[in-house]
């Protein structure tokens, strides 16, 4: 029994080059998992650059932390000034702790980005979502609890016109929170469930 072969010289597109396949690849770029990958990578890059900047240019943000903790540019209300931390050793310890937290968050988010990229190839996003969630919550804790709640309210950073990081912290919280929502979209969860 012989197999039928297409006549020589005919243009039969292979499945990999068929127009529908190319269109499907383009449509996949708009998938929620691709958006989660891109957003996680964005936050990972940002946190990496923040940590790198604070390590290589230690003094610039060290001054910021010192002024916020000492509350020396606030309204200096006696009812609040007892909260001030004026010890350089404690101020530097707080700053080093912030840098360590930033570095760890960057490492977790870079790992999550790698998991997302691998997941785009094999359709499995569970590890990416878990690692991404940990890293994004670390960013939310740093900028939400650390800068907005503790720095902004406890140390009255909102009163300072010179050393006020509330706007930047709010932007970071918004980006991390939005990314966390995309990471947990039902469509991304369904893709994982469909695979199992």
Low-confidence parts: 9-17
Report helical residue fraction.
over 70%
Beta strand count? 0
Average pLDDT, all residues: 89
Distance between the termini: 41 Å
Order of helices and strands: HHHHHHH
Produce the secondary structure layout.
Blueprint lengths: L18 H10 L3 H25 L1 H13 L17 H35 L3 H29 L11 H18 L2 H10 L1
Helix pairs in contact: 2-3, 2-4, 2-5, 2-6, 3-4, 4-5, 5-6
Tag the structure with descriptive keywords.
196 residues, mainly alpha, elongated
Please describe what this structure looks like.
- There is one protein chain.
- By secondary structure, this protein is mostly helical.
- It is 71% helix and 0% strand.
- The chain has helices spanning 19-28, 32-56, 58-70, 88-122, 126-154, 166-183, 186-195.
- α2 (32-56) packs antiparallel against α4 (88-122).
- It is elongated and about 65 Å long.
- The two termini are 41 Å apart.
- Residues 9-17 have low confidence and may be disordered.
Short description:
With 196 residues, this protein is an all-alpha fold. It has helices spanning 19-28, 32-56, 58-70, 88-122, 126-154, 166-183, 186-195.
């Amino acid at each position: 029994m012989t197999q039928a072969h297409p006549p020589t010289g005919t243009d039969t597109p292979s499945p990999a080059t068929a127009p529908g396949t190319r269109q499907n690849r383009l449509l996949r770029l708009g998938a929620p998992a691709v958006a989660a990958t891109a957003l996680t990578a964005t936050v990972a890059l940002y946190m990496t650059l923040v940590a790198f900047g604070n390590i290589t240019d230690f003094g610039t943000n060290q001054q910021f932390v010192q002024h916020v903790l000492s509350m020396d540019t606030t309204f200096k209300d006696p009812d609040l000034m007892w909260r001030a931390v004026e010890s350089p050793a404690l101020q530097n310890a707080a700053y080093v702790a912030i840098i360590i937290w930033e570095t760890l968050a960057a490492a977790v988010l870079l790992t999550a980005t790698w998991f997302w990229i691998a997941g785009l190839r094999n359709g499995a996003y569970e590890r990416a979502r878990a690692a991404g969630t940990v890293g994004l919550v670390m960013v939310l804790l740093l900028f939400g609890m650390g800068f907005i709640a503790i720095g902004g309210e406890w140390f009255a950073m909102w009163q300072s016109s010179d050393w006020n990081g509330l706007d930047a912290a709010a932007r970071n919280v918004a980006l991390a929170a939005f990314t966390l929502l995309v990471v947990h979209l039902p469509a991304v969860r369904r893709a994982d469930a469909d695979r199992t």
